[in-house]
Design a protein that fits this description.
Elements lengths: L1 H41 L5 E15 L6 E14 L6 E13 L2 E2 L4 E3 L2 E3 L4 E4 L2 E9 L1 H13 L1 E16 L2 E2 L3 E12 L13 E2 L3 E2 L1 E3 L1
Antiparallel strand pairs: 1-2, 1-13, 2-7, 2-8, 3-4, 3-5, 3-6, 3-9, 9-10, 9-11, 11-12, 11-14
């Protein structure tokens, strides 16, 4: 008899565990379903980014005794962001901005201050991006020299960040934000003030945004 009672006790514990797991599973399904419904109803749209201006302050390519050269770059950019959502706010928890030439990073990343962007709000930043003596591959140095000689230079202003969505009192988890803005610089024409090597910003551009 005592052995049977012991088995009944073990069975009761197992049944209680199964019930608890079933309840937790159902609750997880409910939360996932609610999250999906909220997403499908609100459909948060990616924030819009625009490169409004870029001033090239320094562009010096120096050769050294190693296989590669060194590029020193300083660039001030003006970037605007707009939240197009009518009912969804955006928390920019981290925004790191840097410049690249043909997909090689040529400046250090500048960190922008965290900010909350409400419905339809616009934020503007003007960081200075600098990269002193950055190692530069020979084939890129040759391409850059040709672009400078031709008076036409394309840099990419990139943003690497983390964002969260806010709907009412609900706040989502973190999402990765990656933005690429082409900066067209020319020596002939252009709308900006002349910078290093006579380059001027040509025109404002839309940025490609991935979340």
């Amino acid at each position: 008899m005592s052995k049977d009672c012991g088995n009944h006790g073990v069975d009761d514990v197992r049944q209680s565990c199964r019930r608890l797991l079933a309840i937790l599973f159902v609750l997880a399904l409910i939360v996932a379903f609610i999250t999906l419904v909220v997403y499908l109803v609100l459909r948060p749209t990616h924030p819009r980014f625009y490169l409004q201006d870029a001033t090239l302050r320094q562009l010096d390519l120096a050769n050294n005794s190693t296989a590669s050269g060194a590029l020193s770059t300083a660039l001030q950019v003006t970037i605007a962001s707009r939240n197009p959502n009518g009912r969804v706010g955006v928390y920019y928890d981290r925004l790191d901005v840097y410049a690249a030439y043909k997909y090689q990073q040529v400046t250090l990343a500048a960190s922008l201050p965290p900010v909350y962007q409400g419905h339809g709000d616009v934020d503007v930043w003007s960081p200075v991006l600098s990269g002193p003596s950055v190692p530069f591959a020979p084939y890129l140095a040759d391409a850059l020299s040709k672009d400078v000689a031709a008076g036409y230079l394309i840099l990419q202003v990139k943003i690497d960040g983390r964002v969260r969505w806010k709907v009412g009192s609900w706040i989502s988890g973190h999402y990765h934000l990656f933005v690429t803005c082409p900066a067209f610089l020319v020596t002939g024409g252009g709308n900006g003030a002349p910078g290093a090597n006579g380059f001027k910003f040509q025109t404002a551009t839309y940025c490609h945004v991935e979340v």
